[in-house]
Design a protein that fits this description.
Largest sheet: none
Mean pLDDT: 83
Distance between the termini: 32 Å
Order of helices and strands: HHHHHHHHHHH
Strand content: under 5%
Oligomer: single chain
Number of strands: 0
Number of helices: 11
Helix content: over 70%
Structural class: mainly alpha
Shape: globular
């Protein structure tokens, strides 16, 4: 119960901070619609060239990018929220106080990311409403239970990557190679903006080592073609393996990073 109250207190604090920037909140929603419009017109101009690569997914270019961006935008919250929140606490001088609360490692990580996921849910709703009412998108063949399973496995995997990313912030303050890779290459090589099949052989090999590639492909097949567990079992298995490896490793590494920073007396530094 104490843990739940502390997590709710973190959510309330973050909500009040976000509430004071209402214009930024509104502009963020408009930017989401603007980004979708850019890809809508790109699809109108060049989508036909990608049609052969989109055939396995049973959709056009804009439908593909819309689903991928909405999906990746949400699961990517886990990848960026821990490091971003940790850095914010460092610069505000509140990290040491936050870590002094009577929470274990896992509840603390949940408290740090709870508001980010709630806000990401709002952004996902904006995507959905814009897709339905502005761009007239429909997903009549979608297998939503299968898509939800992909969603869960992918979000867990990216949360683990985000926790590992936060370890670098905890120890080095600046210079975060995990965040650099996630920010610069995951979307490009993972099939978010175009199918990974268009990549040349050597980049396709790199793409095959990234969990986002399997996550996006499985989500697209579930949403656009109604693929079930049989069709998705390969991608789901890969995501499950990533989860089994990354989740316990990330929690363990974060605990080590906090312990080391406490011993070094650097929790209050930024």
């Amino acid at each position: 119960m104490n843990s739940a109250r502390i997590i709710l207190a973190f959510i309330r604090k973050d909500f009040l901070a976000e509430k004071s920037y209402r214009l930024s909140f509104a502009l963020g929603a408009l930017a989401t619609i603007g980004n979708l419009a850019v890809f809508y017109f790109i699809g109108r101009l060049f989508g036909a060239g990608l049609a052969p690569h989109l055939a396995p997914f049973g959709t056009d270019y804009f439908g593909y990018v819309f689903a991928a961006m909405a999906f990746f935008g949400y699961i990517g919250t886990g990848a960026g929220s821990y490091a971003g929140r940790l850095r914010q606490e460092q610069t505000q001088g509140t990290l040491e106080a936050a870590l002094s609360t009577p929470l274990g490692i896992i509840p603390m990580l949940a408290a740090m990311s709870a508001w980010n996921f709630l806000f990401a849910t709002f952004e996902l709703a904006v995507y959905a409403l814009a897709g339905i009412f502005i761009f007239d998108l429909r997903f009549p063949a979608a297998n939503w239970p299968a898509a939800a399973l992909v969603f869960f496995l992918s979000a867990a995997c990216f949360a683990a990557l985000g926790i590992i990313s936060a370890c670098f912030v905890m120890l080095f303050k600046r210079g975060n190679p995990v965040a650099w890779v996630l920010n610069n290459f995951e979307g490009l090589l993972g099939g978010v903006y175009f199918p990974a099949a268009v990549l040349p052989g050597w980049l396709a090999a790199v793409s095959g080592a990234l969990p986002v590639t399997y996550a996006v492909r499985a989500f697209q097949l579930a949403v656009h073609k109604g693929a079930g567990l049989t069709e998705l079992k390969g991608d789901l298995l890969v995501l499950a393996v990533f989860d089994l490896l990354l989740i316990p490793a990330s929690v363990w590494l974060f605990g080590l990073a906090v312990t080391r920073a406490r011993k070094a007396g650097t929790l209050g530094e930024y």
